[in-house]
Design a protein that fits this description.
The protein is an alpha+beta fold and 59 residues long. It is built from two helices and two strands; from the N terminus they run H-E-H-E. The protein has one domain.
């Protein structure tokens, strides 16, 4: 089971956050540009009108 203590803490306090985005292990830990490009691409494709509270997704 995945453990996201900040998500549980925010939920218990009735405070929203925008979510958790998991970076695939196919990216090397020091591939900062590759990870940043993947996140940027993900964000650019996300519809602006779609709420993202408590999003859970992978790149």
């Amino acid at each position: 089971m995945l453990n996201f203590p900040l998500t549980r803490q925010f939920f218990a306090s009735n405070i929203s956050h925008k979510g958790v985005l998991i970076v695939s292990s196919s990216y090397k830990l020091n591939d900062f540009k590759g990870i940043a490009d993947a996140i940027s691409g993900y964000v650019s494709e996300w519809p602006k009108e779609n709420p993202t509270d408590y999003l859970f997704d992978f790149i």
